[in-house]
């Protein structure tokens, strides 16, 4: 027995992109169904980055009381770039009149899920999408199975793949599972969560001879920190004392507040942009469409930017029968995607020690960092990109 569900927009993936899109469409009276292969608990406990651009916080304000970004999160007016133990503050408000919010992605997801369920959203967990049929007709369909193995078909007028970097929907759009522009990096981040007070008021991005470290935060009692490591590193390979040594030696000038480490993970670095973002009535957004290395925390913010554009385009298509915006969607999205790709690549390559770097490379990198921190124009570019370019709504 196949379970058939009818809706206007079928959204594959209940991450920030899929959930936000269902919310924005609902505001325009467009009904959608969101499916995800994971359970709600898995989704809400996925550890990701913690920085929201100002524009992202403003969009989340439309969730009303469900968004706790402003009440539980913290506004950050700057970051510190540390170069060989010397700190340089990038002051966002004075440079660009904007700020960012420290509010972890899993909290954003918790808020979005609560808001969608309160709004009566049809949100189904444990459904594995297997393929998309009839992408180039006006009745595209998601074909999959539920947690009991029962076949499920979602008949829609538009299908959105917001199903992350291992997207199933992507192959419908690009013609292959991984069709896209790809760059890999010879390093990764070792991330920890520790129960300790903050070691500094703001985030510290440190370039040191021993490699990069980022001292981030989660709350008054929990901190997130990362240090550059080999991509093949085994998380069990370090004792807690060794982890603190690795972190501490990369932030000369600060004594880190140490506490028990209760979570460790290795984050791989990739830059990826799918060759196509839409085929007929199927589009991909967020990590399904592109991946950025984590430096600068652009991933979720970029997903939000895609969704704002796609929401406008689907509204025009389904409410007015106007195809112009959906035809322009991919080009419009790519304008920001490649700016964010550049910024994420640039922050990454400027701050990390590449294992095959020559003396020339290392000294040039020092010069690059100085040309940013010692110049108002340089600091302004960093602040503008970090806090986020205004969202295009055209
Ligand atoms: C965090 C992650 C980032 O990649 C970043 O640039 C800033 C903060 C975080 O997880 O807190």
How would you describe what is shown here?
By secondary structure, this protein is an alpha/beta fold. It has a domain at 3-75 and 100-181 and 271-349: FAD/NAD(P)-binding domain. Helices cover 36% and strands 29% of the residues. The chain contains twelve helices and 21 strands. The protein has helices spanning 16-27, 40-44, 54-60, 69-72, 92-96, 105-118, 170-174, 240-250, 299-320, 324-351, 359-373, 376-387, and strands at 3-6, 9-12, 32-36, 51-53, 74-76, 78-83, 86-91, 100-102, 122-125, 128-133, 141-145, 151-155, 158-161, 180-195, 204-208, 211-215, 222-229, 261-274, 278-279, 282-284, 290-291. The chain has an eight-stranded mixed beta sheet with strand order 7-6-15-16-17-14-18-21. A six-stranded mixed beta sheet has the order 9-3-2-13-20-19. It has a four-stranded mixed beta sheet with strand order 1-12-11-10, with no helix packed on it. A hairpin with a 6-residue loop joins strand 16 (211-215) and strand 17. Helix 1 (16-27) packs parallel to helix 9 and helix 9 (299-320) packs antiparallel against helix 10. The termini are far apart. The structure holds 3,4-dihydroxybenzoic acid. 3,4-dihydroxybenzoic acid is lined by residues 49-51, 203, 214, 216, 224, 294-297.
